[in-house]
Structure formats: C-alpha cells, structure tokens
Amino acid sequence: MKIHEYQARDLLSSYNIPVPSGRVITSIEDAAPAFKEASAGMANPLVVIKGQVHAGGRGKAGFVKLVKTAADAEAAARFMLTNRMKSPQTPPEGLEVKKLLVAQAADIAPRATGGAEEFYLAITTDRATRKNILIASREGGVEIEEVAHTRPEAIFKVPLHPLVGLQGHQAREVAFKLGFPAKLVNQAADIMTKLAKLYVEKDCTLAEINPLIIAQTGSGQQVMAIDAKFSFDENGLFRHKDIAALADLTEENPAEIKAQKLGLSYIALDGNIGCLVNGAGLAMATMDIVKIHGGEPANFLDVGGGATEEAVTEAFQIILSDSKCKGVLVNIFGGIMRCDVIAQGIVNAAQKLGFKVPLVVRLEGTNVEAGRKLLENARAQIPTMQAATDLTDAAKKICAAVG
Ligand code: GDP
Ligand code: MN
Predict the structure, then answer these.
(1) pLDDT digits (tens, 9 = 90+) for 190-237
(2) Distance (Å) from CA 5 to ligand 2 centroid
(3) Which ligand lies nearest the alpha carbon of 60?
(4) Which of 143, 272, 291, 393 has its C-alpha lying 20 to 30 A from 195's C-alpha?
(5) Ligand 1 atom 12: residue of nearest CA
(6) What is the distance between the alpha carbons of residues 7 and 10, in angstroms, rounded to a whole number?
(7) Strand runs (DSSP E) across 98-253, as ranges?
(8) Closest to 326 measured CA to CA, from 279, 300, 359
(9) d(CA 196, CA 160)
C-alpha cells in the first residue's frame, strides 16, 4: 500500500524528522488563501505547490512548482488540477491529480561543487541478503534513477542487523561519506536512525526520502526532508489501523479493490490470458507455464481456498472486464477449494456474462468428477470452452486459442 507525499510528511513529522509545514487543497480557488497561509511572515514569500499522486517524477513533469505570488500559486494549481501527470512512473495516459500540497518552500543550500545540497536516503528490504538495508547517496533529487544506472558507486548500501537495526556509528559513517559538514552529521544520522525505526515499527516495504536537503533557515542550517515515499506491507496493515486509514482507494486499480473486498487476490498484468487459479504457488506455476508456451498472463487471480460460488462468478466478471483479456485459463487443484464450486461458478458466469473469449479449464482434486459433470452438462451454454487433461495441455490450448 502506498500513501501520498503529504501523508508521508505527517508520518515523518510524527517521528520528529523535520519537514516544512503545508496544507492540502483540492480546488483552484483554495490556492491563493493557502499561499498566503504558507508564506505568512516570510520577507520574500516562496511557496511550493506539489501534485499529490502515487507516482514520482513530478518535478520533471511540471507538477512541483515554486511560486512567489498568490497569482502564480493559482496558475500552478490550475495547471496541475486540469492536466494529467505523466512520468516514467505513471501509465502512458498519466494520472489525474485531485489533491495539491501547498507548503513553505525550503531554501536549499548551494553545494560548493555545484548544484544544491540534495541527498537520497531510503530503507528497504534486500531480498538477496534477507536483511533491511539503508541506501544513501550524495546525488539525491530528480536524477537518482540516472545515477543508479550510470554511477552505481555513488550509491551506498549498508545492511542492517536483523535484531539491533541501524547502529549509531553506521549512521554517522554514512553521514560523513555523504559529505555532510561536521556540524550537521548528527542531524543527518539522527534522521537515518528515526527512518530505520519507522520502517520496522510501521511494517514498511519502502521508506524513502528524496531529497533530504540542507536548508538555510533563519537560525542556521538544518537537515530536512522535502519529499518522501512509503510503501507498506499489506499483510501487516491489520496491526496499523492508523496507516490503513491513509489508503486512497481512488489511486488504486478498481478491479483490484473489488477483488480485495471479495477476499480474492487479483493483480492486473500486461498480457492477454486471464488466469483463474487457487493458491499463490499454483498461480506462479501457471504463469510460468503460460509464458513457456509463448503466452502472456493478463492477470493473477487467486480465489484462495474458501471462495464461494458467488466469489468465483465475480472473479470471472473481474477477469472478463479487462478488455486486454483474449482468453481465460482456469487451473484449479482442489484441496479445500472444491472443483464443483469452481465449475458451478463457471456455469453461472457463462449465464450471467457469456464467454465470448476462449476458455480452457483444467480441474483436479476434491470433487473433480462432480465438477467435470457440471461442465459437461453445460457445454452447450459455453461453446468456447475446452477441457484440458493437465497443466501443460491447458497452457498449450489457451496459447493456441489466443494466437
Ligand atoms: P518528485 O520529482 O516527484 O520526486 O518531487 P520532489 O518533491 O522531490 O521535487 C523535485 C525537485 O524539486 C527537488 O529535487 C528539488 O530540486 C525541487 N524542490 C522541491 N521542493 C522544493 C522546495 O521546497 N524548495 C526548493 N528550492 N526546491 C524544491
Ligand atoms: Mn522526490
């Protein structure tokens, strides 16, 4: 689960990581008053307007704007609320922006070697070493992907001890390596320590600050976060009601949300073969074998062990509502899930929706005879259906059927 930047700032703030203050607006008319609020007391008003979407690359797309007047704030808000945000991290058609963050702009200190004092800082889990890892770079900001690609040596990676987490000496060493001036090393190290703590306590899968900056403030220099991105492990959300409440369902794939409500796991993919499967392991094997035979899965739909006939029918509805789906492969190994329940779900779906695309069914396991009989009797209603003897046969048939 992802959250918006403004929510990420609140979360950082709750761990005493410094962030500039701001507020969220949803209409163009609110831009001028929000600008006045953010710039109150500033001798030279400078405010930043930022589109809130679950994707990065906003700066380059024109969805992060520094403004000096209320009129410019309004113009920036108009642009962002009436254009879709397109970046390498969005679908080609872009994303609609419904909320804007209007915040005090930070005065980023210039770097002696050129550019500005922008750093990259993240904690994530490294699957290769099976440890949490701190990732940091002096080359933060909008070019970090490019840096990772062309100069990987400019990115530091520090594995964290599974029990004791990030150690003070590790954090200070990273802060020195990043080139923080001596008097700011402790501030930077402190932010790293807090971020690592937050990562574990909130069951994150990613906690990223980019950029972490050195800001010039009235009372000297301060290290602070001006953009952050978080992802959370959905399996941990039951114990984080506060985090779960931050979900913005309008930013998620509607089919995935619908499936979630029905207790189904559905992940939309880019191919054209819909896969209805029970169990994540079997889903993986099914997708592998489809690919081996030259096909591309359109989705991953796992009905799990206890799905009802209604849920199975809904599962087909979800798969068939994807216009990219040119054929459906049903691969069920009935254990707790009964094959006759699946078969009845197929028959119901055929009656309710009609299968216009080819359907290949491979059933095995609990109540398989009853399931096969149900399908046999309904054959006239499902002309595009073929039965398969095993998984290889099923994969070959569906790949041939969609071409
Ligand atoms: P992203 O492009 O979606 O990652 O959005 P960011 O919030 O990271 O902003 C992109 C870039 O805009 C940053 O790397 C900064 O260079 C610049 N920027 C963002 N906010 C501020 C600010 O408050 N002050 C200044 N001076 N620059 C900012
Ligand atoms: Mn950023």
Answers:
(1) 999 999 999 999 999 999 999 999 999 989 999 999 999 999 999 999
(2) 9
(3) 1
(4) 143
(5) 59
(6) 5
(7) 99-104, 118-126, 131-137, 155-159, 204-217, 220-225, 228-232
(8) 359
(9) 9
**CA dist list (Å): 123 to 157, 160, 166, 230:** 10, 9, 10, 10
Alpha carbon of 26 to ligand 1 centroid (Å) = 20
Between CA 136 and CA 119 the distance in angstroms is: 7
The pTM of the full predicted model, rounded to 2 decimals, is 0.83
Which protein residues touch ligand 1 with a CB less than 6 Å away? Answer: 48, 50, 56-59, 64, 66, 105-106, 108, 118, 141-142, 210-211, 226-227
- The residue type of 252 is E
pLDDT in tens, 295-319: 999 998 999 887 888 888 999 999 9
Reported as a single tens digit per residue, the pLDDT across 123-144 is 999 999 999 999 999 999 989 9
* Residue 61 confidence (pLDDT) above 90: yes
Peptide bond into 211 cis (omega under 30): yes
Q: What is the residue-wise DSSP string for 345-358? A: HHHHHHHHT---S-
Ligand 2: centre distance to CA 116 (Å): 14
229 C-alpha to ligand 2 centroid (Å):
8
pLDDT at 271 over 90: yes
What integer pLDDT is reported at residue 301 of this predicted model?
92
How many residues comprise the chain?
A: 403
Nearest CA to ligand 1 atom 18: 64
Q: Which residues are catalytic?
A: 120, 208
Closest atom of ligand 1 relative to the 108 alpha carbon? 26
Nearest-atom number in ligand 1 for the CA of 107 is 26
